[in-house]
Design goal:
CATH architecture of the largest domain in chain A: Orthogonal Bundle
Distance between the termini of chain A: 47 Å
Structural class of chain A: mainly alpha
Largest interface: A-B, 105 and 97 residues
Strand content of chain B: under 5%
CATH superfamily of the largest domain in chain A: MetI-like
Shape of chain A: globular
Number of strands of chain B: 0
Largest sheet of chain A: none
Order of helices and strands of chain A: HHHHHHHHHHHHHH
Order of helices and strands of chain B: HHHHHHHHHHHHHH
CATH topology of chain B: MetI-like fold
CATH topology of the largest domain in chain A: MetI-like fold
Low-confidence stretches of chain B: none
Oligomer: heterodimer
């Protein structure tokens, strides 16, 4: 009689379960992914390329890059600072702070947009008209600074915005809504990682005479770089793909306040399916790149970087 | 004398973390709740018990619960296979599980709609199956309407579509919550149970599964909480028929588009209270488990 291990199932059961799991994943995850590309190329390369070269698409791509370009660095800075605070020090209210950092995960994207309308919308705490009054002196200052050479380009745009400070239905609203939604990603990755690493190395460095930023850049950063990179990747993927929050604050002005996901929605609702899916391939591609980099990060860091989201 | 902190940067990181948290998260959320609080309790009641909201709440919570349940079952199967078995392509499958996290919700929304629409890759078969059921059993009443819906629209533009989208979104939460727990699970208990004469199925049911229950509950709750607020992947496939396939987040947007800021704030505040309670319960559960394990 051959030896049979007791902690696993018989071969047919194993095969059956594997087949079920593969079927579930293929039908449920792979099929949608395949469908994005199939629909995008249904009318051929020409249509595909034309829909990406269209002016509205290009401006949507630009806007998406700007929103991610502002919110991801800000949230990375916050994530590092928050992780440093809650893992290196013990203080009153620490566990409350950790729960508050997770808060945006429990907030519907639509509500993440709505809160900014409540603050800056027409009936909000800081409506546009009130801010225009408050910013009037700054607008004058910027306008006069714009007359000097060198920084003219910067200050003339600033002066125009300060004179009519639009937040909702404009770029600043899109940026802050994206920041709200992607707020916890980096902190969420770093906190458990830095918690398990402890502070022994940092303490040793201080004892040996290292001061301030030196401790962070020379001791902590090399230890957390993979976790940090992973957090930034997830943060970026969400920032570029955010739909609900941005849709509430954007106002859907074509060529002006449409990010790429909103552009996809507009095209889809206009029954321009091929164009919608062509733009969607860019976002699906972003997702694939994120997943591959994630797998690479796990490989290079030598341990499983995937945690809870 | 208070102990001096050895590691630098307490003041700086505390200052930056608290100000940033307040500016980006706390003050905006407070603004929302204050806006909602401007209306009295009777107006709250009036808004939250309006017919359209009740219908949307039933669909949102019902479909979310159903989706989280199915996600939990599928998640258990997939995690089991990924953790316990070695086979070619395992790493690829593992990486694929995160796809719903990484794929922007709007893309997921239009793609699922396209697949499950009556002429889509999967929708056509659902439509045919519904037609076959109609021809064979001629169902009537409530069930007959559902079958008629499926025959006409495939799985899209109906509560079934909402359920499919929410399952897609919630599924990775279960896998990623369960996976570390299953990886740490040592086989001693299984061996002991097998030595004592238990069959494989009994070992799974009586020894293995109970150990995974807390992780499964956490995964279920995370999937459920995410599903309640989900917007992008649902609004395309749901078809947004008033009283039939509208979800709560869509109603928030609808109120906003009619400039009914207070009503939007009230619905949003109600949703937030439910999600925060869920989050609080998970934290409580996990703290209790940590306490038990130590």
């Amino acid at each position: 009689m051959s030896y049979r291990p007791v902690t696993t199932e018989s071969a047919p059961v194993r095969l059956f379960l594997i087949a079920c799991a593969v079927l579930v994943l293929a039908l449920f995850l792979l099929l949608p992914l395949a469908a994005v590309f199939a629909e995008a190329f249904r009318k051929g390369w020409e249509v595909f390329l034309a829909s990406l070269h269209e002016e509205a698409a290009l401006s949507a791509i630009k806007l998406t890059l700007i929103a991610a370009g502002v919110s991801v660095p800000l949230n990375t800075l916050f994530g590092v600072s928050a992780a440093w605070l809650v893992t290196k020090f013990r203080f009153k209210g620490r566990s409350l702070l950790v729960s508050l950092i997770d808060l945006p995960f429990a907030v519907s994207p639509v509500i993440a947009g709505l809160v900014w309308v409540m603050l800056f919308g027409a009936k909000g705490w800081f409506p546009q008209s009130a801010m225009a009054d408050a910013f009037a002196p700054a607008a004058h200052l910027a306008a006069s600074l714009a007359e000097y050479q060198g920084f003219g380009w910067l200050f003339s745009d600033l002066a125009v915005w300060l004179a009519d400070p639009k937040i909702i239905f404009a770029l600043p609203g899109i940026v802050i809504a994206t920041t709200f939604v992607t707020f916890p990603f980096v902190a969420r990755e770093l906190i458990p990682l830095m918690e398990t690493q402890g502070s022994d190395q940092e303490e040793a460095a201080v004892t040996l005479g290292a001061r301030g930023w030196h401790v962070f850049f020379r001791v902590t950063l090399p230890n957390i770089k993979w976790g940090l990179l992973y957090g930034v990747l997830l943060c970026n993927a969400r920032a570029m793909g955010e739909f609900g929050a941005v849709s509430v604050v954007s106002g859907h002005i074509r060529g002006e306040t449409n990010t790429l996901p909103l552009h996809v929605e507009v095209l889809y609702n206009e029954y321009q399916f091929s164009a919608a899916f062509a733009c969607a391939t860019l976002l699906a591609f972003l997702a694939l790149v994120t997943l591959s980099l994630k797998t690479a990060v796990e490989y290079f860091s030598g341990h499983d970087a995937s945690g809870k989201h | 004398m208070p102990k001096r902190r050895v590691i630098p940067g307490f003041g700086l990181s505390m200052g930056f973390t608290i100000s940033y948290l307040s500016l980006i998260i706390l003050i905006p959320l407070a603004a929302l709740f204050l806006k909602a609080a401007r209306l009295g309790a009777s107006q709250w009641w009036q808004i939250l018990t309006s017919e359209r909201i009740i219908a949307a709440a039933k669909l949102t919570f019902g479909a979310s619960a159903a989706a989280a349940t199915v996600s939990t079952v599928l998640g258990l199967l997939v995690t089991w296979v990924l953790v316990r078995y070695r086979f070619p392509g395992r790493r690829l499958l593992d990486a694929m599980v995160d796809l719903p996290f990484a794929l922007p919700t709007a893309v997921a929304g239009i793609t699922l709609t396209q697949i499950y629409a009556p002429h889509g890759w999967v929708g056509q078969y659902i439509s045919q199956a519904a037609l076959w059921i109609q021809a064979t059993y001629a169902p009537t009443g409530w069930w007959g309407e559902v079958i008629q819906d499926w025959a006409d629209k495939g799985a899209a533009y109906s509560p079934l579509g909402v359920f499919i989208a929410l399952t897609f979104i919630g599924f990775p939460f279960v896998v990623r919550t369960l996976q570390p727990v299953m990886e740490d699970f040592s086989s001693e208990y299984e061996e002991a149970a097998a030595t004592l004469g238990a069959g494989r199925w009994t070992v799974f049911r009586r020894v293995i599964l109970p150990m995974f229950i807390p992780a499964l509950i956490t995964g279920f709750t995370l999937a459920f909480a995410r599903a309640i607020g989900e917007y992008g992947s649902v609004i395309f496939i749901s078809g947004n028929l008033p009283m039939k396939t509208e979800i709560l987040p869509l109603l928030v947007v609808a109120q906003l588009e009619q400039f009914k800021y207070e009503a939007a704030a009230v619905i949003a505040a109600g949703m937030l209270i439910v999600s925060f309670t869920l989050l609080f319960l998970i934290n409580l559960l996990q703290r209790r488990l940590n306490w038990q394990n130590n």
